[in-house]
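Supplementary Methods. Inverse-folding protocol.

Structures were first reduced to a discrete structure-token string of length 154. This string, shown here, constituted the complete conditioning input.
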């Protein structure tokens, strides 16, 4: 796209189906590398990736050559197929329907990277649902409680 100049930074969040803690530390880094490769295949630049056993955060420079929804669909579909092919979990692995995606200015990137890198520390104080609702409120996103990720019931 000649003469098209953009600077779009997206922080995407998506969860394991039913928020089950299935992402094991033994293969977590391999999963992140796989998700990075899917994202980069489409010309987007991954700045940070991290998460917990039940969800993933990815921050990337987004190129307007593809719809965000299409990219997220591919990331989730291809990574879940890979997890199932590698037999990392018993039964069938899948991501929960939907995702969150939020844009940030270049000046905010270091803070978002730090936030993603410190997920374990953050989740000692806040549940995933609390975290997600906090982000939705911060960005003034209207949402329907019925469709927000539910806490895992003990």
């Amino acid at each position: 796209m000649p003469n098209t100049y953009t600077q779009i930074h997206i922080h995407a969040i998506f969860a394991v189906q039913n928020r089950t803690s299935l992402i094991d530390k033994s293969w977590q880094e391999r999963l992140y590398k796989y998700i990075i490769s899917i994202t980069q295949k489409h010309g987007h630049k991954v700045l940070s990736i991290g998460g917990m056993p039940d969800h993933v955060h990815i921050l990337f420079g987004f190129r307007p050559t593809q719809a965000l929804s299409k990219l997220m669909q591919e990331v989730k579909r291809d990574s879940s197929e890979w997890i199932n092919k590698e037999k990392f979990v018993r039964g069938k692995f899948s991501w929960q329907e939907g995702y969150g995606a939020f844009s940030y200015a270049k000046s905010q990137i270091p803070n978002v990277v730090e936030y993603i890198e410190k997920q374990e520390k953050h989740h000692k104080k806040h549940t995933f649902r609390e975290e997600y609702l906090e982000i939705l409120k911060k960005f003034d996103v209207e949402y329907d409680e019925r469709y927000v990720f539910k806490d895992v019931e003990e």
